[in-house]
Write a structure and sequence with these properties.
ribonucleoprotein, 6 strands, Large ribosomal subunit protein uL4, alpha/beta, rRNA binding, Ribosomal Protein L4, Chain: A, Ribosomal_uL4-like, about 210 residues, ribosomal protein
């Protein structure tokens, strides 16, 4: 697949670049994408939920009424879950929701996500750029030039660039990451991928090990 390289003003630079068939041309594996996204979302969960069970409620342990003769059901403790303020039956406990996923599956998932976007013509290759200083207006000018303001975008850089990252950090629906930190969730969540030209070689090195 061949794409034109554009600059941050939205102009065609006249250069063409071929996307790696080993990444952008693979047959998308939907199940691998599902597993990787599921793992990403599971890892975002804090898992700090907790409810007191019968043994943890701070109440008296005395028998609240006599066993027989009251006309009602027997009751031995105010901690019983049937009473207001009693312990929760099988309440939630702190836990880790994360699970293991093989590296090859994660790699396949990312390749599949790139292939899905390539098939949908949702990828733009940008000429390498940077900003002199972090200014949100500078990043908004780039999105304006590309007619992408208000669109979910993911910009992939070859390495961390503080000025570019800080410029786009507060822009709604815009996310900036690096080639070594890109994940399947962000790829699938974005409506448009903006890939810096130097980032393509980094992606090829990382995903074709």
């Amino acid at each position: 697949m061949e794409l034109s390289v554009i600059n941050i003003k939205g102009e065609d630079t006249g250069k063409k670049i071929s996307l790696s068939e080993d990444i952008f041309g693979v047959e998308p594996n939907e199940h691998a994408i599902y597993l990787d996204v599921k793992q990403y979302l599971a890892n975002q969960r804090q898992g700090t939920h907790k409810a007191k069970e019968r043994a943890e409620v701070s109440y008296s342990t005395r028998k609240i009424k006599r066993q027989k003769g009251t006309g009602g059901a027997r009751a031995g403790s105010i901690k019983s879950p049937v009473f207001v303020g009693g312990g929760r039956i099988f309440g939630p406990r702190p836990r880790d929701y994360g699970f293991k996923l093989n590296k090859k599956v994660k790699t396949l998932a990312r390749k599949s996500a790139f292939a899905v976007k390539a098939n949908a013509n949702s990828i733009s290759v940008l000429e390498a750029f940077t900003f002199d200083a972090p200014k949100t207006k500078s990043y908004l000018n780039v999105l304006n030039a590309l007619s992408l303001v208000g669109t979910k975008t993911l910009l992939i850089l070859p390495a961390n660039d503080a000025n570019v990252y800080l410029s786009g950090r507060n822009v709604p629906k815009a996310k900036i990451t690096t080639a070594d930190m890109v994940n399947t969730y962000d790829l699938m969540n974005a409506d448009r991928l903006l890939i810096s030209e130097p980032a393509l070689s980094v992606l090829e090195t990382l995903l074709n090990k």
